[in-house]
Amino acid sequence: MKLNGKEFTTKSGAEYVYLSDMNIVLSKNAIEAYPQRRELLSQIPGYKKTNEYYDCYREYTPEEIKLEIMKNGLCELAIEVTSACNFRCEYCVYSGKYENQRLHDYQNMDVTTVFKAIDKYYELIEEGIEYNSDRTPVISYYGGEPLVKFDLIKKCTEYAKEKFDNNILFTITTNGSLMNDDVIDFFVNEKFNVVVSIDGYKENHNRNRKDVKGNPTFDSVIENARKLFLKQGTPVFTSVVFDYDTDFVLMEKFFRDNDFLVCLSINSVNPYSTTYFDKYTVDSYDRFKAKLDILMKEFELSVVDNEANPLAFMSRTFGDICTSSFMRQCDISKKNNKIIKHTGACVPGNKIFVDVNGDFYICEKVGRSIVIGNVEEGINYEKCAQVVNRYNNLVVHKCRNCVIRNNCKRCYVSIDMDENKINIPAESCKKQIEDYFADLSFAYSIFESNPKWIGRYFSEYYDAINDMMVMLR
């Protein structure tokens, strides 16, 4: 009997099988050593999923979507206080290099619109208490560069604290250039979770992150980040973006030398619907990959020797591959109760992004073609249901036989939907599948070299991050 899955091999030569419908990995040798195991596997409920399992053609009602949002959504209200920015980053989604995104402009949200957004979020949180009493409201400030409207942020924060009786968290992602002493004192006093965008070492940062006049920005940003560190007493969270000109060996050295910074996220320049990568050649990628491989080997040795620091840049780069590979949820159920059947898309309303005009969107990364409400009327559950049903209908037809359909990271950001078809380039899907199994091979190779490391990394990293956030509060 042929297994319903796809095989992969680790660096040691060990063979494994990923069973896509059950979402688990098994040793090929362990299965083949006992032939009856194949038969037993095939008898497990959910081993081979059908359209009935996925409930592919179900149409969700607005009431069902509302119930899901009340139970599991409303995680965050992201407020676009301004669309203006004092930087002109080469890879910015508003740079003109991305389809279906706005261009740089200079609109500001007025205080009335902000207060209405907060009021509506409060009403939704209160309505949802009977379904989820443990939810902590979160407001995040977004731009443009949100600190362009620092005065508005202060008013919003004071209003939200009073509205929610101080039971609320505040976050902000900033380019760091406008963090003067007054701003830093405000962040510390109000216990903000601050994330500063720093693309690592000076040359890499300045190459893409310039101000509106084309000047480099690294020196002022790193100086302000250091001031924030000294005031808040905990390392500063950073967000890093890389492209094929980034040298990962130098990135590791930078973060090692600047241990007052902790890399919270590492992301490639958004590769979807953009002309950004047109400038690169095969040789460009090969040079990038060579440096990445050097750091990967260093990481592998540190794991074997039990010396890998969970907060190190290379641990964040490669450790997350391991944890995401081992934290998949095994599925032996007879029915898929997920509302979004395939891919990594969320249910609209999981978070709310409100733009300068007061319109609600799925999130800040999704184009402005899908409006799901506004500050006057709140969430439009009928519209949310339409989005879910159309997405499911199109994606199920396109992706139901894909081996990574239950672990694909694509969502509304990278999947273009027309009325009657879905646009996903075949080459892009092929690469995503190849990358997924390369990650599985890497993760299981790390597991073979030190079985205890992945669990230790996961617990130590998140314990450290949680401790920092508790201290900030």
UniProtKB/TrEMBL annotation:
CDD domains: Radical_SAM. Keywords: 4Fe-4S, Iron, Iron-sulfur, Metal-binding, S-adenosyl-L-methionine. This is Radical SAM core domain-containing protein. Belongs to the radical SAM superfamily. Anaerobic sulfatase-maturating enzyme family. Its cofactor is [4Fe-4S] cluster. One of its GO terms (biological process) is molybdopterin cofactor biosynthetic process. It comes from the Bacteria. It holds the Pfam family Radical_SAM. InterPro entries: Aldolase_TIM (IPR013785), Elp3/MiaA/NifB-like_rSAM (IPR006638), MoaA_NifB_PqqE_Fe-S-bd_CS (IPR000385), rSAM (IPR007197), rSAM_sf (IPR058240), Sulphatase_maturase_rSAM (IPR023867). SUPFAM superfamilies: Radical SAM enzymes (SSF102114). The keyword Isomerase does not apply. Signal peptide: none annotated. Residues 67-312 form the Radical SAM core domain. The keyword Iron-sulfur applies. It comes from Lachnobacterium bovis DSM 14045. GO terms for molecular function: 4 iron, 4 sulfur cluster binding; metal ion binding; oxidoreductase activity.
